[in-house]
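Example record for the data management plan.
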Amino acid sequence: MIELLNCVFTMETINCIIMLIYMAPVLGLIAFLVGFKITGMKGRSYLTLNANEKVDGSTVIEILNKYKPYIYQDNSLKLDIKFIFYEFICQEDKMILIYRPVWTDEIHPNLLVHNLYKFFRWIFYGSIKDIEFIEIVIDRKTGDILSFSFETLAEGASIEMPKHCFTEIIKRGKKFYNITKNNEITKVPFEDFHCILQVKTWNHLLYIEENPKGQKFDCILKPLTNWLYRKYAIARRSSGRYKTKQNKYVKYLVSILLMIIFGIGFPIVLYFVLC
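Corresponding structural encoding:
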């Protein structure tokens, strides 16, 4: 019996089993993270116009520059806005202008949390870049701003663990109302057609400030191509009313399936091949 066991479990076999035991969780974790990453690369589900296409006699880029938001940022924040991605959606009676300001990173006050969160964003969003949104809806007949939306810090949330709150400002008559907060009247600062917003937090949530502080950013605009939309997992990032819908369970299902295949199935196959 002992001789039989020695025959079956040679030293090479034992070493092979030990190697596979160590390999399995590593492969499983890598496969799970890969699943998270690839499921975020969903394409845009709505049509956008190119910069040189014309709408009502003006080019898309002319319209985008006319309504481009001006963003103020306090000098205490370490990273500046680099540029703004844009998307332009044209409907029968409205134009939807989506501006996505881009920062190279987010700097959390706690160094350990910063690095852990940085790794998570690299996997989940395909990049450590922070990409926020400002969505503006324009009346095609009058050229008036009908509404604009962005994300701000939720009431009562801490700066260290900021909770996002979708904010939509709409125009009724000559006044703007914040429909997210029980229709409270909001005084919105404008410079010509440019709404003015202030960066509020380290992760670049925005808010309306009557007297904005810090540096004013009038950023260059860059097209958000279909490839960049996928690369930066825009479908997963914060957006306004116009966005690509995702099934939130798909990323978990695909990731768990890949983890089972490569963390369990692949090592078992290797065992029979190598051992």
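Summary line stored alongside the record: The two ends are 20 Å apart (CA to CA).
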